[in-house]
Each structure stands twice: as structure tokens, then as C-alpha cells.
Amino acid sequence: MQRNIRLRLLSNFVIFFSLTAIAWWSVLLFTLNRDAFQGKAGESKMLMIAEGKIKNDAEYLETQFYKDLQAEYKRQEWMILAESLVFIMSIIIGVYLINRGYNKEIDAAQQRRNFLLSITHELKSPIASIKLVLETFIKRELSPKHINQLSNNAVKETDRLNELVNDLLLAAKVETSYTPNLEKINLTQFLTDIIQRLQNKYATVIFDFRKPNIPVNIQADRTGLTSVAVNLLENAVKYGAANTKISTVLRQNEQQQIFIEIADNGIGIPNKEKSKIFDRFYRVGNEDTRKTKGTGLGLYIVRQIVLAHNGKVSVADNKPQGTIFTISLPSNDV
Ligand code: ATP
Ligand code: MG
Which H or E run contains 199? Predict the structure, then answer.
């Protein structure tokens, strides 16, 4: 960090020095140009007076020679000004682009670090739990009840590992080779099923689903859309308060465009983070201090899948607190 600050200071100094040098050279060129003009004008005036072509200064100012000289001087003045401006603009644009690239690089490095920390933790903890269960089986004689309990835990941990690996694979796929495998889906039924499944998984959370009276159908990729809905709902649970209420709304406007809104009343997302959370591996806060588990892949997968369906995903604040994610999808049911 210290080295970065020193490098920044040094580059700022070099930039400042270059800008001052250009400004100084421009002033110098202006002066030289003016001196040369005055010198030439003075010399030619003397010559003309000596040759008897003109009598005084006033006549000299009317000569074609002086007018040409003056036009040439003005032209050169503009040239110096334009060249200096181009120089200064190039430096400013160059510095801006380098700075932007540098900041992006820093962000990317931070995200990679976050990702490595979280993925190592996410992979290691279920593996450690499963190992512990197996070691207990080897070392101890256990009652069937106890065996059952430990096995269930191990299965849960294996599911977690499986989900993580699936997320990693899906993220790699949506980045390169994902095309939706379209089929007709009754969205009303589809969301009811997913919400019911999650309600069984998170008994203390209150799930609420508002839907139109008539079924909403869409041509979409079932696996992809499942991932979108599950990721958003799981986020709402994960970043929601205890006993949080998660409201899902399905609606369709006059143009038949479909909207799915998932709202929670949890910790919310600060405005400056809203545009970043869809980036791969991005998680709000810092891995060392963060309490929730995750890899920062969920919303990236959501966005890529929604985009592949020609849809959009957006995020806004919920009132009085929390977050609302809205997915809009074009209606394509024929
Ligand atoms: P995972 O890959 O397991 O989903 P994750 O949940 O951290 O990990 P994303 O789903 O991509 O990753 O979310 C990115 C970040 O956005 C989260 O780390 C969290 O900080 C923030 N976030 C997402 N959804 C919500 C929400 N409903 N409320 C508050 N913050 C949220
Ligand atoms: Mg998530």
C-alpha cells in the first residue's frame, strides 16, 4: 500500500511537472513569435523607408507586406495555442484512462482476493464437517439414532458443496456458452413451487406471493430461471432480518411485459454498491469482516441468465428498509 501511495505521488508529480512545462513552453513560444514578428516588422519598415517606398509608420501599417506579416503572426499564434491545448488534453485524457484502468485493476484484485478467501472457506468447511463425521463413524460405536443424525448433517454439507460446484460451473457457462433451452413455463405455478420449496427449507421466514388471477406463461429455460429465482430468494433470506418477510410479486403490464419483484426488509444495499453487486465475485463489504457466507457469483449468474432471455434486472431500496430486485422479461408466449 505504502509503495502504491509513493508511486501515485511520483506519477502525480510527473504529470504536474509535464503540464507546467507545456504551459511554460507555450508562453515562451508566444513571446518568441511576438518578438520575431516585431523584429521583422521593424526591419522591413526601415528598409521601405530607406528605399523611399513609404514615408512614416502609418503608411507602413497599410502596406500589403505588413498585413501578410501580421496574418502570418496571428496564424502562428493560433497554431501554438492549438498545439498546447492538444498536448494538455492528451495528457489529461491519458491520465484519466490510466487512472480508470488502475482503479479497475485494484477492484479486480480485491474481488479475486475476496473470492479466493470465500471459496477456500466455503470448500473447506463442508469437507471438514464430512471428514469429522466419517472419522466419528470409524472411531466410535454409535446408536442408530446418532448415526442417522450425523449422516443427515453430512448429506447437508455435501449438498452445500454440490451447490457451490454447480454455481461455479454455471458461472463459467453463462460467461461463455449459455443459450437458454426454451420451453413453455407457467410462471405462476413455477414460482409457487419454488417459494413452497424455500418455505419448507426456511421455516421461520415468512414468504408471501402475489400473482395475477390468470396464469402467466413464458418461453424460457427452466433450469436458468430456477437459478434466477432461487438466487434472489436465497439472497433475500440471507441478507434479511431474522423472521424476515419476503414478498414476491408476479405481474404483467398492458404490453404483456412480465415483472417479477422480490422484496425483503433486510440490511439493504448502499447506493454506491448497487451497480457493482452484479459483477462476478463481488460482495458488499470485506471478506475479513463479513458474516454471511457466499462467493459473489449469485447475482452475476442472475444477470447473465436474464440478459440471455432479453430481460433486465434492477435493484432498488425497499421501504422502510431492505431491497427490491425486479426482473423484467419480454412476453414471448405464442
Ligand atoms: P452467492 O454466490 O452464494 O450467492 P453472495 O450472495 O454473496 O454469494 P450475490 O448473490 O452475487 O453473492 O450477491 C452479491 C452481494 O450483494 C452480496 O454479497 C450482498 O452483499 C449483496 N446482496 C445481494 N442481495 C442482497 C439483498 N437482498 N439484501 C442486501 N444485500 C444483498
Ligand atoms: Mg447470493
Answer: helix 187-201
